[in-house]
Structures are given as structure tokens and as C-alpha cells.
């Protein structure tokens, strides 16, 4: 290479570097702008939790005049003798168990629909999709009567048993879509090796389903964390209340309302979900593309 | 191997869930053979916020001391969630042993025997000698005593003296009429003053769009809103007349703008110190003072009707009932009696639910000078000789027709419907809702 | 032809009867299928099917929760047709589905594609975009959202910056639907996450090969991205549509349970809830629910039928 060529080469190299840096700056600026817009309500929520109750409703200014952590202390005091941490742990137990139940039962059910050909499959699949269509308000009364007759009211069982029995078609359908998108060559290779469905499911499918399982876990956790109607109907003892119920107790139309404490508790309730998401979103990474299918 | 990890995970999770379930159910036993002698557990449910919860807990601590063999399991939630949960329980015949009830839903719950008839306990376990007999009757439906009031309230006009001073308007005189009130509202709104944030100050929101104010006006006009057989004691023309009371104000834009009111929910014009007056139940003073931050809110009676009387009535603000499916009716009656008549309970609750119905509880209150409790008690003492009318006993479907009235009132204030359309729609809906 | 099919072909005419081995294999497949399906079947029959059938029965009765249901045949459905509030709820819901769903999905896909690379801060950005979905279901959203759309709130200020004086949206019956659509679109984080998972499954080699062939970003998007993510696209499209028809929590929280102002947020399921739990007319609510099932069921069927022509599953190619 002549010196001239090297010089040109370096110029091109630095031009590319410059272009890449500009693109990176543009990217980050644009994304940050969108992020700011998207996060404004969340920011408002956080700022309100620092304001006294009387300054929250009807107030248009973002920043508090006298920021203080009083609301947080009030929220942490709990309600009616039940501490914030009790609500927190109840929510946590229910959410974590829901995630486990849904991950297990939905993947197993989805495998049956996506990878096994058996008589009646189409009918069951249609029925499963059908369960998505009915608004839940009209089934809660019959379901309540069932659980009441079994003596299971005021326990966690009614809230969890459906999760372990794949009762939420959303997750099953999600897994089905992912599984149908995985190439069959791996299945067949394993089958030639003498593997049955159980081995194919556990050794091949599950590892490849990481993005789907991560997605389902995220949704399962969050929906359960925020679920209000189930706990309202089935949990009677305030010791068993979850955070969404506790949040409603701060604002009651027949007595005085404490919006500040509600905001503070809502902010506190957000943190675990956000953390859960930040941890699990790392699993939203390449599936088939990075596993050895080449050659 | 993944398989064994998978199955052990599954087994572990199910075991955990079952353990949680078992632990929970074992801690809420229903004693199959419960008399007053053996230890008994009953459930007691109410609606309200954290403050009311702590007051109830204080009262129950006292109860435990007096009746050590009765354990009370408590439950509470906000008002809206409360009724969803109770309705579901009613469908499953599993209402709590003792529960707070409201006039609006008494008939639905008493139909088909969902609430226990407490008549046989009155005079022995439940001592109502300190009660006004007409008040006790308010909890009687079809000859059965299915609820007993805990406290009462009556309607009042609240006003903000600071805003009135700013607008340069005097508060209404003691014997003011509805026409006087309209003049007062027009004066405040026309004064054109603004708050520090630059929002215009008005006299009040549209008072004609609240159902209970319509009922109060009917009583003033000498009508009985609801007959014993469940039919209405008023006609379409009556409703039109009432809605017409504030029609001029609506037309002239002198009522608090409805769209801003909605933007401010859960607060309102009055609690944002943008409107100078508001009608409400007298025990809502605590909420108004807390939400608005205005400590010197004043209370005065409602306007005088066309025949010279105010026709005010005591309305039970809350009642206590027992679920008919209770396995411990005697213990439930004991708790009800305690909550209704024990003087210390009166001191604990103050006027947070309304003024206690029992005289001993009222006397035990001893509110602090200048406190909200003191103001409410003083107000009720002052108007006591004018509170002579019987309370309208809500019909079946009351909750729905009340909500329908409010919804239509909103549409009226937006100018989307006329008074005639309002009345026609309301009566048509009410016919189906009160079947 | 897949390996399995090649292996199972025994040769001879296609109408040859299945051999014993095939029959055994099919029986084994059936056993395996039902074994894997067992949890769902148990849940379906124990928890779901019974209540669903009960609610279907209730649709033909008057049921006020306190007395046993009484049969009225098609009475509820006849009342529905003449109920102006019902018509309003249909109008509100359909408007929301037609506008809100595409807006939300487009935002979700756009942002997912934006975040589908190895740049720094991925985790933080994704979490930031997902945060709205977390807050959206919380009861505090009512106050937060109102604060933004109130008179002189941030949205009003933005409008005034551009010279539009639209005032507060919350109390304005014509602006509450756009406000709702924004609220929905704001929560695009949920479908975005699903799109991300789907995008991650697209092999990078395809893009590289396309670059070599000289394809630009638009062609890459249309010819590679869309077909490869069609399974999740179909999922998101179908489920967002179904959810949009059933929206309840935000409507209830923001309108304070009234469907106001002036019925502008009276969504179908909210109206159903009001009739069922506020007016104690469960039969009527059940009738509304099952009417919704039929309508959304037909739409779902159309989606599934159409999916045969544009959804491509890599596991089922050929």
C-alpha cells in the first residue's frame, strides 16, 4: 500500500466513524425525546407524591412548591393496622406464583397445540380462543359461587389455580405463535435420536422459547401485580390484601381522601414491577438466530 | 437434567400454593357448634378509608375486652368496591355476619331474605332506648327490622366566607327561599372575581342535578317521594318544576361550569375554592375542610320551601345489618348493640359517620371547641326543631335511579338535552329499574 | 417434504391402509397430545366452561343477584335494540377500536424496530417505554391523566404553543375519545415487547444477504421483517383488537365509573358492568356479553381465515 492509499484509507475510515457517531447521536436524541414525552406522566406521578395532598388535584404545575417525603411515610404506615410491607408481600407472592404457574402451564399447553397432531386439537384450540372473547364480568358471579361452595374464599387459591391450569388463553396463544415459528428440523433430529415429546419439549423447545417465556413472565407479573377485581372478591381479611386494594383505600368518596399517600404508594408499587421488567427484558434476545442451525 | 428440575419446580410451586391455601383457610374457621358460651368468630365488614378503619379497630379492641369469647374478623374497602363485593357475596349467599349498609340498597338486600330480621333482639340484646323511634323505623322493610341506623345526617348549605368576602356578597339570610338562593348565586357569579390561579369564582354548581336535593324539595312541597308500595309519590311535572329552578342560572352561565367540574374530579369547584357554596350532608364538613384547606367553612340550613317550612329530615347516614346466612346470630346482635349504643364507641367515631343515633353516644362525644365535630353537632342542635319530616324511604332500584338522575343532570348541564327530554328519559329508565 | 414424512412413507399407492406402526404412532401422538393438554382441559372444565355456560343461560333471564333468575327468553336482546345507552356504548367502542388499535400497533412496531439493535442503553430505553403500561392499570392513572389534560395542563399548553386553544380535554365530550386513544397508544409498551421478541427471532443473515443484493431499508422491511414477524404481528393485531373491544379498567378509572362526561366514555364493557353491578340486572349484562362474544368471534374468525394468506410460520413451511 502506498502512503497515498493509506492516507485515503484513513480519511475514509474517519469519515465512516464520523457518520456513525452522528447517527448514534441522532438516534439517542430522538429516542430520548420520545422517552421524555412517554415518561412525562410517570414523572408527574413521582412529583405529585412529593406534594401535599391539597396541592395534587387540579394543580397544573409539575414541580412541587415544598417537596417532602411525608406522603411516603404515610403510605408506609399502612392502613388499619396492616403495614405496607404486608400488602407488598401479598402482591409479591401472588405475582411470583402466577408467573411460575403461567410459564409452566401455558408452555405445556402450547406445545400440545403447536407441535402435536391429535384428534380434537382444532376444536380445543377454537374453544380456548373462545374463552378470550367473553367479558369476565359475567363469569365472576358463577365462579365465585363455585369457590364459595368449596370454601376457598379468603384464600389465595381462587386467584392462583387458574394460572396453573392455563386458564388465560392470552399466554397459551402467545406461546403457540412462537412455537409455530420455530423450525421443525430440530424436533425431527431429536426424534431420530429416539426422543419422545417430553424430551423434545424440555430439551429443545423450552430453551428456544426464552423470548416468549420472558414476554409471558413480564405480562403475567404485571397483570397480576395490578389485578384488582380478583383480590376484591376473594380476599376478605385485610392482612391478605394486595397493593391495588390498599391503593383504593386511600381515596374514598364518603370520607376524606388522601391523594398524596395514594400517589406515594403507587410510586412504591411501581418499583418492583419496573425492576422485574428490567431484569427479564434481557432475555428478549435472539433465539433461533443464535443457536446452531447453520450447517 | 432439565426434566427433573422442571418437575420439581412444578411440584414445589403447587405445594406452595396449597400450603398458602391451607394456612389461609385454617385461620378462618367457622365454628360449627357456636353458642354464646363457646368461643366464636364473626365477620364484620364496612366501607371507608384508613381513618375509619383505625377507628373501627379501636372500637373492636374495646369490644374484645367486654366479650372476650367473640373474635371479630374485619374487612373493609372503599365505597364502590364494597357494593361490588357485597353483591357477589349475596349471589353466593355468603354475606358477612355484621355489615354496614346504606339506605339506597336496603330493599334489594332485604328481598329474598338476605338480611337477618333483628326484631327479636330489640329490647333485650339490642337496647334502642336512646334512639328516636322514627329513626329505627327507617331500617324496617316489610315489617322486618333488617337494619338499624348508626348515625344520621341532614342536608345543609356549606359556604366559603372568604370567597364571599372577595365577591362582596352577603351569605343568605336564615329564612331564605330558593329564589333568594338563586339571587345569591347570580350575585356571586356576576361579581366576576377570580382566584389566585385566575379561575373565575362562581356561586355554586347546578344544585338541581342531585337526586337527594330533589327529594328534599319534594318533602318541602308536602309530597311523599316514595309510597309504601314502591311507587313514586311525584309526577313528571314535579321534576320539571325542580329542574326549572336553576334553569335561568344555567342559561345565563351563572353556575359553575360542568366541564371544569369534571376535570377536577375527585374534587370539585367548592373544594378547589372556586365556587362559594354547595349543598350536601352535614357530616361531609370534615371532607370539605380537608380537601379545600379552608378551615372556616360555614354551615347553614337548606332554603325554605314555598309553604314556609324547610321540611328537613334526619337521614340515616349508615346502618348496621346482619347477614341472614350468619351462623352466629346472637354474637352478631351483640356486636351490633355494642357498636350502636356503647358510649365510648360514640367518642371514638365522633361525627365521622354522621351524628350518632344513640343519645348516650352523642353525649359521650365531647367534641373540641371549634373542631369539625363541634360544628356539625352545633348545627344539628340549631336546626333540630326544624327537622320534623320523616325521611323518604328509598324504593328498590334507588341506587340506579339516583345514578341515572346524575348522569342525565350532567347531559343537561352540557346542554345536550332539554328538561323535557331529561324527565322523559328518567321516568322511562326508572320504570324498568324499580321493577 | 419433512424428514418425518419421508420416514413414514411406506411406499405404494397413497390409498394404502395405515400400517400397524402408523396406528401405534398415531395412538401415541394422541396420548401425548392429551397428556400435554391435561392441565388446560382440567382448568377449562372445572373453572371456565361451567361459568361460561351459566352466563349464557343468564342472558335469557332476569337476574338481580338476590333472587333466583327468571326466564325471559329473548327479552333482554329486544330491550338492547331499543336502548339508546347501548347504542352509545357501541358507537364509543367501535370508534375506539377502529382508531386506537392501529395507532397503538404502529407505535409499538416503530419503537420496537428502533430498539432492536445493540446500541447502548437498550435495557433502560425499553424499560422507559414499558413504564406506561405499568402505570396505566394503576388507580392513580386517573389523577395523573387528568392533570395532563386539564385546563392549562401540559396538553393545553402544547396546544397554545401551536396557537390552538383547545382547553382541557377531560371535561369536553368531543375530546375525551382522542384523549382515550392517546392513553391507549401511550401504553404501547406491551405490544412493543412482543414485537421485540418477534424481531429477535429474525435471522440476521437474511438482512445481510438482502444488503448484498442492494436492498434498501424499505424493501428490507417489506420483504423480510414483515413476513418474518407475521406470527407476532397476527397475535398483536388479534389480541389488541379483542382487548380494545373489552376495555374496562381505564374507562372505569378515568370516568369515575360513570362513562361520562355525557356518555362519551361509555365503553361497552363499562356499560355492561354498570347494568350488571350497579343496576343489578345481570341478565341484561350477560346478554350484552354474549352479543359481544358473537361479534368479536366473527371478527376473530375472519382474522384467522385471512391469516392463512399472509402469516408465515417457519415451523410449518412447505
The second-level CATH architecture of chain C is: Orthogonal Bundle
Overall structural class of chain B, as computed from helix and strand content, comes to: alpha/beta
At CATH level 2, the architecture of the largest domain in chain B is: 3-Layer(aba) Sandwich
Q: Helical stretch count of chain B? A: 18
Largest chain interface and its two residue counts?
Answer: A-C, 107 and 103 residues
**Any idea of the CATH topology of chain C?**
MetI-like fold
CATH homologous superfamily heading of chain C: MetI-like
Question: Which CATH class of chain C is shown?
Answer: Mainly Alpha
List keywords for this structure.
heterotrimer; B: 435 residues; alpha/beta; D-Maltodextrin-Binding Protein, domain 2; 2 domains; 6-stranded mixed β-sheet; 3-stranded antiparallel β-sheet; 18 helices; 45% helix; globular; disordered N terminus; C: 318 residues; mainly alpha; MetI-like fold; two-stranded antiparallel ribbon; 15 helices; 2 strands; 1% strand
Structure, explained:
The complex is a heterotrimer of chains A (295), B (435) and C (318). Chain A is built from 13 helices and no strands. By secondary structure, chain A is mostly helical. Chain A folds into 2 domains: 70 residues, no CATH class; 219 residues, MetI-like (MetI-like fold). In chain A, α8 packs antiparallel against α9 and α12 runs antiparallel to α13. The two termini of chain A are 37 Å apart. Chain B folds into 2 domains: 219 residues, Periplasmic binding protein-like II (D-Maltodextrin-Binding Protein, domain 2, 3-Layer(aba) Sandwich); 206 residues, Periplasmic binding protein-like II (D-Maltodextrin-Binding Protein, domain 2, 3-Layer(aba) Sandwich), CATH 3.40.190. The N and C termini of chain B lie far apart (65 Å). In chain B, 45% of the residues lie in helices and 13% in strands. By secondary structure, chain C is mainly α. Chain C has a single domain, classed as MetI-like fold (Orthogonal Bundle). Chain C contains 15 helices and 2 strands. Chains A and C meet through α1, α3, α4, α5 and α6 of A and α1, α2, α5, α6 and α9 of C.
Amino acid at each position: 500500500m502506498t502512503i497515498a492509499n493509506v492516507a485515503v484509507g484513513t480519511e475514509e475510515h474517519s469519515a465512516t466513524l464520523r457518520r456513525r457517531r452522528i447517527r448514534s447521536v441522532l438516534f439517542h436524541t430522538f429516542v430520548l425525546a420520545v422517552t421524555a414525552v412517554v415518561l412525562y406522566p410517570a414523572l408527574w406521578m413521582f412529583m405529585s407524591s412529593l406534594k401535599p395532598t391539597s396541592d395534587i388535584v387540579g394543580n397544573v404545575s409539575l414541580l412541587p412548591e415544598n417537596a417532602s417525603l411525608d406522603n411516603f411515610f404515610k403510605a408506609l404506615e399502612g392502613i388499619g393496622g396492616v403495614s405496607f410491607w404486608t400488602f407488598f408481600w401479598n402482591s409479591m407472592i401472588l405475582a411470583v406464583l402466577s408467573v411460575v404457574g403461567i410459564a409452566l402451564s401455558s408452555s405445556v399447553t402450547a406445545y400440545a397445540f403447536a407441535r402435536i397432531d391429535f384428534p380434537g386439537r382444532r376444536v380445543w384450540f377454537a374453544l380456548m380462543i373462545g374463552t378470550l372473547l367473553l367479558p369476565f364480568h359475567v363469569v365472576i358471579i358463577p365462579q365465585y359461587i363455585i369457590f364459595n361452595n368449596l370454601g376457598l374464599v379468603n384464600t389465595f387459591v381462587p386467584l392462583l389455580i387458574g394460572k396453573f391450569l392455563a386458564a388465560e388463553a392470552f399466554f397459551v396463544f402467545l406461546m403457540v405463535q412462537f412455537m409455530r415459528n420455530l423450525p421443525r428440523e430440530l424436533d425431527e433430529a431429536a426424534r431420530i435420536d429416539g426422543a419422545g415429546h417430553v424430551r423434545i419439549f424440555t430439551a429443545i423447545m423450552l430453551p428456544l422459547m426464552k423470548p416468549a417465556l420472558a414476554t409471558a413472565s413480564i405480562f403475567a407479573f404485571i397483570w397480576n401485580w395490578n389485578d384488582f377485581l380478583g383480590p376484591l372478591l376473594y380476599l376478605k381479611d385485610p392482612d391478605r390484601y394486595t397493593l391495588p386494594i390498599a391503593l383504593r383505600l386511600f381515596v374514598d368518596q364518603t370520607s376524606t381522601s388522601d391523594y398524596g399517600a395514594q400517589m406515594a404508594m403507587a410510586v412504591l408499587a411501581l418499583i418492583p414491577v419496573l425492576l422485574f421488567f428490567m431484569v427479564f427484558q434481557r432475555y428478549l434476545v435472539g433465539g433461533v438466530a443464535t443457536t446452531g442451525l447453520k450447517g | 437434567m432439565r426434566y427433573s428440575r422442571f418437575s420439581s419446580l412444578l411440584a414445589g410451586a403447587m405445594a406452595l400454593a396449597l400450603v398458602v391455601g391451607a394456612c389461609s383457610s385454617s385461620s378462618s374457621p367457622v365454628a360449627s357448634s357456636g353458642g354464646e358460651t363457646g368461643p366464636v368468630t364473626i365477620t364484620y365488614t364496612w366501607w371507608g378509608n384508613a381513618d375509619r378503619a383505625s377507628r373501627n379497630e379501636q372500637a373492636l379492641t374495646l369490644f374484645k375486652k367486654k366479650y372476650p369469647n367473640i373474635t371479630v374478623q374485619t374487612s373493609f374497602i372503599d365505597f364502590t368496591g364494597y357494593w361490588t363485593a357485597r353483591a357477589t357475596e349475596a349471589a353466593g349467599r355468603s354475606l358477612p355476619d355484621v355489615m354496614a349498609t346504606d339506605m339506597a340498597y336496603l330493599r334489594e338486600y332485604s328481598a329474598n331474605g338476605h338480611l337477618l330480621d333483628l326484631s327479636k333482639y330489640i329490647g333485650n340484646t339490642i337496647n334502642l332506648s336512646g334512639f328516636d323511634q322514627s329513626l329505627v323505623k327507617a331500617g324496617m322493610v316489610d315489617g322486618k327490622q333488617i337494619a338499624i341506623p348508626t348515625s344520621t345526617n341532614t342536608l345543609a348549605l356549606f359556604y366559603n366566607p372568604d370567597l364571599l368576602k372577595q365577591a362582596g356578597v352577603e351569605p343568605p339570610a336564615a329564612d331564605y327561599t330558593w329564589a333568594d338562593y338563586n339571587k345569591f348565586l347570580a350575585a356571586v357569579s356576576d361579581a366576576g372575581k377570580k382566584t389566585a390561579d385566575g379561575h373565575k369564582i362562581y356561586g355554586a354548581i347546578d344544585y338541581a342535578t342531585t337526586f337527594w336535593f330533589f327529594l328534599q324539595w319534594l318533602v318541602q312541597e308536602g309530597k311523599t317521594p316514595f309510597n309504601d308500595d314502591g311507587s313514586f309519590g311525584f309526577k313528571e311535572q314535579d321534576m320539571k318544576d325542580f329542574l326549572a329552578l336553576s334553569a335561568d342560572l344555567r342559561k345565563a352561565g351563572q353556575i359553575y361550569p360542568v366541564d371544569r367540574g369534571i376535570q377536577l374530579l375527585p374534587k370539585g369547584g367548592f373544594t378547589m375554592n372556586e365556587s362559594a357554596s354547595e349543598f350536601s350532608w352535614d357530616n361531609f364538613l370534615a371532607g370539605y375542610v380537608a380537601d379545600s384547606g379552608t378551615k372556616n367553612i360555614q354551615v347553614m340550613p337548606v332554603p325554605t320551601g314555598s309553604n314556609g317550612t324547610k321540611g328537613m329530615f334526619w337521614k340515616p347516614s349508615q346502618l348496621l345489618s346482619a347477614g341472614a346466612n350468619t351462623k352466629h346470630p346472637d354474637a352478631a346482635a351483640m356486636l351490633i348493640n355494642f357498636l350502636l349504643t356503647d358510649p365510648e364507641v360514640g367518642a371514638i367515631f365522633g361525627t365521622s359517620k354522621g351524628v350518632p343515633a344513640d343519645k348516650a353516644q352523642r353525649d359521650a362525644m365531647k367534641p373540641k371547641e371549634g373542631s369539625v365535630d363541634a360544628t356539625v353537632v352545633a348545627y344539628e342542635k340549631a336546626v333540630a326543631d326544624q327537622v320534623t319530616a320523616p325521611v323518604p324511604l328509598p324504593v328498590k332500584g334507588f341506587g340506579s335511579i339516583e345514578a341515572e338522575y346524575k348522569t342525565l343532570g350532567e347531559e343537561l348541564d352540557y346542554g345536550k338535552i332539554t328538561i323535557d327530554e331529561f324527565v322523559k328519559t328518567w321516568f322511562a329508565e326508572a320504570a324498568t329499574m324499580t321493577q | 417434504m419433512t424428514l418425518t414424512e419421508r420416514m413414514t412413507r411406506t411406499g405404494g399407492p397413497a390409498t394404502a391402509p395405515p400400517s400397524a406402526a402408523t396406528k401405534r404412532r398415531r395412538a401415541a401422538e394422541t396420548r401425548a397430545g392429551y397428556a400435554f393438554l391435561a392441565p388446560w382441559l382440567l382448568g377449562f372444565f372445572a373453572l371456565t366452561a361451567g361459568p361460561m355456560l351459566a352466563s349464557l343461560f343468564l342472558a335469557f333471564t332476569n337476574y338481580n343477584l338476590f333472587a333466583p333468575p327468571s326466564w325471559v327468553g329473548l327479552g333482554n336482546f329486544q330491550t338492547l335494540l331499543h336502548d339508546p345507552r347501548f347504542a352509545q356504548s357501541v358507537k364509543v367502542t367501535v370508534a375506539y377500536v377502529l382508531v386506537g388499535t392501529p395507532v397503538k400497533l404502529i407505535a409499538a412496531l416503530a419503537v420496537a424496530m428502533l430498539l432492536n439493535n445493540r446500541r447502548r442503553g437498550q435495557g433502560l430505553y425499553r424499560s422507559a417505554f414499558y413504564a406506561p403500561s405499568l402505570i396505566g392499570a394503576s388507580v392513580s392513572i386517573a389523577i395523573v391523566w387528568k392533570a395532563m389534560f386539564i385546563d392549562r395542563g401540559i396538553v393545553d399548553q402544547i396546544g397554545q404553543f401551536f396557537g390552538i386553544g383547545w382547553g382541557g380535554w377531560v371535561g369536553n365530550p368531543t375530546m375525551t375519545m382522542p384523549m382515550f386513544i392517546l392513553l391507549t397508544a401511550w401504553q404501547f409498551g406491551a405490544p412493543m415487547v412482543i414485537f421485540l421478541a418477534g424481531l429477535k427471532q429474525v435471522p440476521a443473515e437474511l438482512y445481510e444477504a438482502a444488503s448484498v443484493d442492494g436492498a434498501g431499508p424499505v424493501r428490507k422491511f417489506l420483504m423480510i421483517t414483515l413476513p418474518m414477524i407475521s406470527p407476532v404481528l397476527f397475535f398483536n393485531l388479534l389480541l389488541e383488537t379483542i382487548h380494545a373491544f373489552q376495555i374496562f379498567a381505564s374507562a372505569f378509572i378515568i370516568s369515575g365509573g360513570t362513562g361520562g362526561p355525557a356518555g362519551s366514555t361509555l365503553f361497552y364493557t363499562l356499560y355492561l358492568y354498570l347494568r350488571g353491578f350497579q343496576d343489578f340486572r345481570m341478565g341484561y349484562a350477560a346478554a350484552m356479553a354474549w352479543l359481544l362474544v358473537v361479534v368479536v368471534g366473527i371478527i376473530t374468525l375472519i382474522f384467522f381465515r385471512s391469516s392463512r394468506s399472509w402469516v408465515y410460520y417457519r415451523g410449518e413451511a412447505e
